[in-house]
Amino acid sequence: MELLDSPLRADALLHPDPVPESARDLVEAFRDAEVPCHALPDAQLASVSDTRTPQGVVAVAVRPSWDWEDLGASDLLVLDSVQDPGNVGTLLRAAEGLGLSGAVVLPGTAEAWSPKVTRAAAGSNLRLPIVEAAWTDAGPWLEKSGRELWAADARGETLGRSQASRPCVALVLGNEGAGVSDVVLRAAVRTVSVRLRAPVDSLNVGVAGAILMDRLRESLRDG
Fold first, then answer.
1. Any alpha helices (H) in the chain, and if so which ranges?
2. Which 3-state string (H, E, C) describes 138-187?
3. HSE (CB half, 13 Å, CA atoms) of 184?
4. How far apart are CA 116 and CA 139, in angstroms?
5. Fewer C-beta within 10 Å: the chain N or C terminus?
6. pLDDT band at 163 (very low <50, low <70, confident <90, very high)
7. Other CB atoms closer than 10 Å to residue 61's CB: what's the count?
8. d(Cα 216, Cα 167) in Å, to the nearest integer?
9. Which band of pLDDT confidence, cut at 50, 70 and 90, is reported for residue 120?
10. Positive or negative CA dihedral for 79, 63, 86, 1?
11. Do residues 101 and 68 touch, judged by C-beta distance below 8 A?
C-alpha cells in the first residue's frame, strides 16, 4: 500500500491462488490502480522473496532515481558506510519522519532499496529523495549547497535540546564499528554526540541517529 501511495510506478503484484483473506484488500487496490496482478504457485512466490516466512504477496516496482536538485533545501542525512540494512532503513524512516528533506548514501552503505532496507524503512525509502554518490561528488555538492557538515562521533560535543539559531545541516552517521571515515570527518565543521550515563558508552547507530535528528528538529534554523 505504501508503494501505491508513493510516486513510484508499480509494475506488477504477485500473489497466491486463491488470494488469502489477509491480502484481498491489497490485491484489489492494485487491480483498481490497473497494476497487473499475477497468481503464482507458493514455491515460485517463495523463490522471489528473501524472507523465511513471506507474507504471500510480492510487488515489483521501478527503483527510484533522484538527482541532487531533488534533495530539497532542508537538513540532510548522510550515511557513510552504514552496513546493516536494518540500520539504514531505520535511519531513512527517521529522516523522513523528523523532517529532513533527503539523504546522501556514500559507498560502503547497504543498498538503499534492497529488500531488507525497504522493510525497515516501511515505505520511507520510496518517498524520501536519496542520492547515492562517492564522497568526491557529494562533498563539493554539500559545500556548494551551503549546508554545514556535522558528523556524529562519540568524542563530539553533546547536541542538546537547544533553541539557538543554527545553519542548515548535513548530518553524517558512520559505520557501526569504525564510525565516520577520516576523509569525511576532516571535512566536518562540527562533531556531535548524545550524552550517555555510564557504563553505557555507545548506542546503535539507528538509535543515535534518530536522537540527533530529533535534536536538529528542536533547534532553530537561521532564517
1. 2-5, 24-32, 42-47, 85-97, 115-121, 124-127, 135-144, 182-187, 205-218
2. HHHHHHHCCCEEEEEEEEEEECCCCCCEECCEEEEEEECCCECCHHHHHH
3. 30
4. 28
5. C
6. low
7. 18
8. 10
9. very high
10. positive
11. no
